[in-house]
Design a protein that fits this description.
The protein is an alpha/beta fold. The protein has 3 domains: about 100 residues, no CATH class; about 170 residues, Rossmann fold (3-Layer(aba) Sandwich), CATH 3.40.50; about 55 residues, Orthogonal Bundle (Arc Repressor Mutant, subunit A). Helix content is about 40%, strand content about 15%.
């Protein structure tokens, strides 16, 4: 528990999605030793910039205690990077989270077969039914289903796993106590009884747009394979696939057979370029793994009923409530425009910018691009009326 305080202090000083937390585990016997070494030790480590050292100096340890107290109040469980309970598959990536905030019980992910089921928030009925069916049958076979808790494919996948009385993990791009996607609140609560809702962010952290690409690396790291249900050419699901292959070039990628349609451009391209294996049945995924024990007695591929479909929220379509009425209370944060044909660097910059003003220095930190490269990209995005400069050198999306 003592180490936990210092790891939380570290994230509050340095931020998230960094390689430096893992590097510290190799350099020091404990994070407490690093903290007590003070500014001189922090400089000697050779890992930190002057700005980061200034942040560490100015961040009191009490901020960690406040977060721990909040977690205790809500019965959230915390696991830090040097804890025996920390998933080995997550530690193996270059930038594992220093702390995991958990509601529910994190399954022994290292000893269970796990598949990430991902896809668009604007899912078609085909995508919704397919994600539900694949997740149901995989979960019924003993596979852990991992997804991001968003509208559309994510939500349908979690619900399919729950309907099978299976295990599922929901990885959020905000704090687990933040009221994100109110219509999915019951689903998240149900997940905690058969799995876990997790995040690398403290409980009340807001869902900033750049959190979601960072969140995707956790989804891919926890998974033995990634199933793309429905993805357009600029879908965030492709970020998860790229993250998976960067973490492990041999990680198995699957894509559902889909129509020649813009909603499936990304999925079909993965198959065409031989990045993903085309699948039509959940058994195609199980058969791709040798020497993995799962239950295979199930023969009937479950399909969700129309009543189930009606309450699965999809971006741009309000779900029916329990009385059969549609509600407009969709509390998901606004999303970026899609199918813009941006370059890779332009895409990075665009998705680093949210509806809250963000300074160019923060954009550089998020994207790992130098400011001189970012400036012309910002100009291009402004000319295309995708972003605007709001104050000083800060920007927000339109």
């Amino acid at each position: 528990m003592n180490n936990l305080r210092y790891w939380i202090w570290f994230t509050q000083s340095i931020g998230y999605c960094t390689t430096k937390a893992k590097q510290l585990t190799f350099l020091y016997d404990s994070i407490e030793e690093f903290y007590l070494g003070g500014e001189n030790e922090w400089r000697l480590s050779g890992l930190f910039s002057n700005k980061e050292i200034e942040n560490m100096t100015n961040t009191p340890l009490s901020v960690a205690d406040e977060i721990i107290n909040k977690c205790n109040h809500y019965f959230f469980y915390l696991v830090c990077i040097d804890s025996p309970e920390y998933p080995e598959c997550l530690f193996e990536i270059d930038d594992p989270p220093a702390v995991l905030y958990i509601s529910g019980a994190l399954p022994d992910i290292d000893d269970r077969m796990s598949i990430a089921v991902i896809g668009t928030r604007k899912a078609s009925m085909y995508g919704i039914k397919s994600s539900y069916s694949f997740a149901y049958n995989l979960a019924k076979s003993g596979v852990t289903i991992i997804s991001g808790g968003a509208l559309g494919v994510d939500c349908s996948s979690h619900l399919g796993a729950l309907a099978a009385d299976g295990v599922t993990i929901c990885v959020l791009g905000c704090g687990i106590n933040y009221d994100y996607l109110r219509e999915n609140a019951k689903m998240r609560s149900d997940i905690t009884y058969k799995g876990a809702v997790i995040s690398e962010y403290p409980p009340d952290t807001e869902p900033y747009s750049y959190h979601f690409p960072q969140r995707n690396r956790i989804i891919s790291a926890l998974s033995d394979g990634v199933l793309v249900i429905e993805a357009g050419s600029r879908s965030g699901s492709l970020i998860t696939v790229n993250s998976a292959l960067e973490q492990n070039p041999n990680k198995k990628i699957f894509a559902l057979a889909g129509p020649v349609d813009s909603h499936f451009d990304g999925s079909n391209k993965l198959v065409k370029n031989k990045i993903a294996t085309l699948v039509t049945d959940y058994k195609d995924i199980i058969d791709a793994f040798e020497n993995v024990y799962v239950t295979t007695e199930l023969e009937v591929s479950a399909q969700p009923s129309d009543d189930v479909i009606d309450v699965i929220p999809i971006k741009g379509k309000a779900p029916k409530d329990i009385n059969g009425l549609r509600t407009n209370d969709l509390s998901e944060i606004p999303l970026h425009k899609e199918n813009l044909n941006l370059s890779d660097d332009e895409n990075k910059v665009y998705y680093a910018i949210s509806y809250e003003p963000i300074h160019i220095d923060k954009i550089a930190e998020i994207t790992n691009l130098p400011v001189f490269k970012i400036l012309p990209i910002l100009t291009t995005l402004e000319l295309r009326e995708l972003i605007k400069c709001v104050q000083g050198r800060s920007y927000k999306i339109i």
